[in-house]
C-alpha cells in the first residue's frame, strides 16, 4: 500500500513540475498552452528526486494524525480556558459584590496540603472541614495542573466544597505543585496582597494594623487578657514535616492546621502623636509691623519665644496689614456664648419704647459731646423734666446691633448704685427712610473722664486711693451679680465736679454665670493678659483693667503710652509690675502688684482689694471736689445754656 501511494505521488509531482517549468520559461500562461511545441529545458534526475522529497514532506504535514482520546482529554484539561474580557470583568464584579454582602461573615486563612492558603467562610460549628471556600481573585500567573485518567472536565465538576477524601494506598500522592484529585478541584492560590484586599472592608476581620499592634504587645512582654487572643501563623517544625511526609507516603493526608480569628472586643490602639504645626517666626510678620517692633526695641529672644502672642496682638491692632482670611475673621468675631442671659435681653426689650410724639420735640439744644465706634453722645435738655441729660444714639439695623442694644439696656437698667451712671429711658426712633436707631437717655455729669483728669493734673497718693476705692465699689456691685464689665478704661470712668465717680458704657458687659469667655475685646492698653493669649477670662479681667487705670493716674497716661503694641506684648509676657513708679507709697505698690498679676487665678478679688489698708485711710476724699472743679471748669461753663 505504501509503495502504491509513493508512485502516485511521484506521478502527480512530475506533472506539476512540468507545468511550473513551462510557466517559468514563458511570460504569458496562455501563450504556453497555445504553443505546446515549444522546447522544454532538460532536467537532471537529482532535481527530480529533490522535488519529490519536498512534495512527500508537504503531503505528510497536510495529513492529520489522529491522537488517542485519553491524550486529547489530558491536553484539554491542561490548556487554560480562554475567556473574553467582558466575561472576566463580570466575574470580578460578582466577586466584589459577594464580598460586600458577606461583611458580617468571618473568613479563615487555612493552609492546604499543598502548602497553599485558602480563604474559607466560617460555618460557626467549629469544624474547618465544613467551612466553604471563598472565591478569591485568581493569580495572573499560570498554574500547572495535571489530572488523573479518571478526571472530570472543569465544566462538569461538582460545587467547590472542602471535603476530606483520602487516596488509596497503592497510588502515590501527587507533588505539591500539582492537583491529582479532579473531583475536588482547587482554586489557584491568590497573592497575599490580593487576599488582604478582600479582608480590608470586612469589619469582623482585624486589619493589618491591628495585627501589628498585637505583635508589638507580645514583643513588649504584655500578656493578652483574652484567651482567644490573636496567634501568629508559624511555619511547621522539622518534626511536624517528617510526620507529614510519612503520612503522605502511606496515603494518609494530615489534617490542615486551623488558625481561628480572635474574637477581640476592643483592639489595642497606639496613641498617635500630634502632627507638628508650622511654627511661625518673626520673619513671617508684615514688614510694617517688623519695623515697629525694631523701633520699639523689643527683646528679640522674648519675641521668638512668644511669637504666637505677637501675631495675635499685631492682628488685633493692624488687621489691614495682614492678608484677608474669611475663616479667621469669622471665628474671631463670633463668641461661643452670648453676653446676656435671656432674662436680661427680654428686660432690655421691654424697656425700649417708641415715642408717641415727634422725637425732635423730646430734647432741645443737643450738642455733640463725644463719638466712637459704638455711636455718638449728645448733651441735651429734656423738655418734660427740664433737666440736662446725656443722649447716646446708636444704630439699630442689623441683628448684631439689636442684640448689643438689648443687652446694654438690660444691664444698665438693672443697675442701681451710686457709682454707676443712672439710666432714665430708651427710645426706638425711625427716620423718614425707615432707618432705625436707639436713643439711650442717661444722667448728665458736670465734669469729665478720668483720662482727661490724668493728663491735666498730677494727683497725690491719697486722692488716687479715693478714686480707686470708688471704682472698686462699682465693680463689687457688678461682681456680686457675676457680671464682668470687660471694657473698664479711663474714658469709661466719669468724674463730676461734686467729687462723684461713676462707671459708664455697658456695651461689652457679660454675665459670667454662663461660663468663662475666650474672645479678645476691649481697648488695647487695658486688655488683660489672658485675653491676649486667648485663654478663658472671667471677673478677674476687670481687676487687671482697674490696676491699669490707677497706674495711669501716677504716670499721667497709660503705661507704655508710646505704643499699644509694646504695652500689650509686655502685659502678656512680663507683666506691668516694673512700670509702677517710685513716687507711689508702699501700700499703693502692694495694692497695684495684687491687681497686675499675669496669672488670673492668682490675681486678687474685688473684696480683697476693698479690704486693703491703702483704701481704708482716713480723709482720702478731702479736697477732691476742688480738684475736679479746677480740672473741668471749662467743660461745665461751655455746657450751660
From TrEMBL:
Region annotation Disordered: where it falls in the sequence: 1-238, 250-283
Annotated Low complexity bias: 159-168, 260-276
Keywords of the record: ATP-binding, Nucleotide-binding
Compositionally biased spans, kind Basic residues: 91-103, 138-147
PROSITE patterns xref list: PROTEIN_KINASE_DOM (PS50011)
Residues of the Protein kinase domain: 363-615
Transmembrane segments annotated in the record for this chain: none
InterPro entries xref list: Kinase-like_dom_sf, PAK3-like, Prot_kinase_dom
GO molecular function list: ATP binding; protein kinase activity
Origin: domain of life: Eukaryota
Gene3D superfamilies in alphabetical order: Transferase(Phosphotransferase) domain 1 (1.10.510.10)
Biased composition regions of type Basic and acidic residues, renumbered to the chain: 63-72, 183-215, 223-237
Biased composition range(s): Polar residues: 12-39
One Pfam entry name: Pkinase
Alphabetical list of PANTHER family matching this protein: SERINE/THREONINE-PROTEIN KINASE SAMKA-RELATED-RELATED, SERINE_THREONINE-PROTEIN KINASE SAMKA-RELATED
UniProt family annotation: Belongs to the protein kinase superfamily. STE Ser/Thr protein kinase family. STE20 subfamily.
Protein name per Swiss-Prot or TrEMBL: Protein kinase domain-containing protein
